[in-house]
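Task: complex structure prediction.
Instruction: return structure tokens for all chains below.
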Amino acid sequence: MTFSHKELNYFPGCSLATTAKENNASLKHFLEQFDIRLTEIPDWNCCGSSSTHSIDSGLALALPPAICFWPRLTSRC
Amino acid sequence: MDTIKLTPASGNFVQTVQEKSRSDLSRCWHCLCCSGGCPFAKDMDFLPNVIIRMVQMGLKEKVLTSSAIWLCVGCNTCSMECPNAVDMAAMMDTLRRMAIEEKVKIAEPAVLSFHQKVIDSISRYGRTHKLEIMMRYKLSEKDFFSDMDLGLRMLSRRKLDLMPSKVKNKQQIQALFKLAEDLS
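Output:
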């Protein structure tokens, strides 16, 4: 199986770096089998998780788009 | 048994909740799919569909001071299972925010405190630092020894980082918090 994209940018999130690091490892290992390399989005921020949408609608709206758009705006991605 | 008095003013509450949550609660036919699927229903004082009915009846104070709205973790199972596409999870979010805005007595202050600690951590580092959130939560609740074994097991399996992972661009985070204030 071949894929047109050999290098993908991705957002790991706070959990994938710590409490769910085995998921991160298995994802990377799985994609390596297809010669796909994952690169972390530069300087990503927290998506806000369930705490922001529970009590602060503004933050819940502001944080996730920033992960996608900030690297583009600052042309680092 | 409590008598529920319905007044014309009772209708305002359901309208406000519907507008804020962008969900049409009148579509609920109380099939209990939401309550049946909710992983926390057994701990709630009112089942999720009962909350809908109470909102419709304008029982504002009872709803906003219920523990159910705080025990909801926002997993969205209810919204997914609803055959009539009532967005229950959005309703629960709205009710929690309304409870804070209206300054009513919060039924589960520990849950609110935890959410606040998570947001504090994001404002400090741009990311969540779980160990610190847990420690600060334990300190504020003065509950030092519960779940200690679980915490130690997580530490020993390196599931909790000792040092926080930080966003380099601090101004970005400050700007986002400022933007969030304008948005809400």
